[in-house]
Amino acid sequence: MNLIDLLGYFGAFLSAITFIPQVLQAWKTKSVGDLSIWMILIVITSTIVWLIYAVNVGSGPVLVANIIVLVLSLLLFYFKLTFKKPL
Amino acid sequence: MNLIDLLGYFGAFLSAITFIPQVLQAWKTKSVGDLSIWMILIVITSTIVWLIYAVNVGSGPVLVANIIVLVLSLLLFYFKLTFKKPL
Question: What's the whole-model pTM score?
């Protein structure tokens, strides 16, 4: 593995963990009013697109990163529905 | 361009616009208390890593998508500092 591959893995790792602090904060505060529901829906949609892409091009890192992001964004979506009454 | 490439571009497009609704909501409400500062910092760091990666592998879509995400996440960081007093 060369340095550029390593950089790609590091980027994928950071992208994967992006929503961990957000999920933890939302869980602790039970407050998600400032989170955009559209951001969450776009993240869910994009991870599904990336998952299909990853399976088709056979990219393990993209697959793993997006499974993690999908789980975290589904949690945020659930919090958004639970912690605040939907319109 | 085949269907898989197209899927990759669609994923990159969705990833690029992820934070647009969040920036708009933060700007309208001037309320960012529920946004995790760590999420924003991870996004900024990951986009910088992805930008270096994109330049080195010569990936236009990854470059463009991450420039957009970097600008949006820097805006959220600025909002976070401005709309709410930092600790």
Answer: 0.92
| Distance, CA of B3 to CA of A52 (rounded, Å) | 11
Q: What is the ipTM of this complex?
A: 0.91
pLDDT tens for B18-73 read 999 999 999 999 999 999 999 999 999 999 999 999 999 999 889 999 999 999 99
Q: How many domains is chain B built from?
A: 1
Residue A66 sits in which domain range? Answer: 3-83
Residues of A with CB under 8 A from a CB of B: 4, 7-8, 10-11, 14-15, 17-19, 21-22, 24-26, 29, 31-36, 38-39, 42-43, 45-46, 49-50, 52-53, 56-57
For A48, the token pair is 């599904």
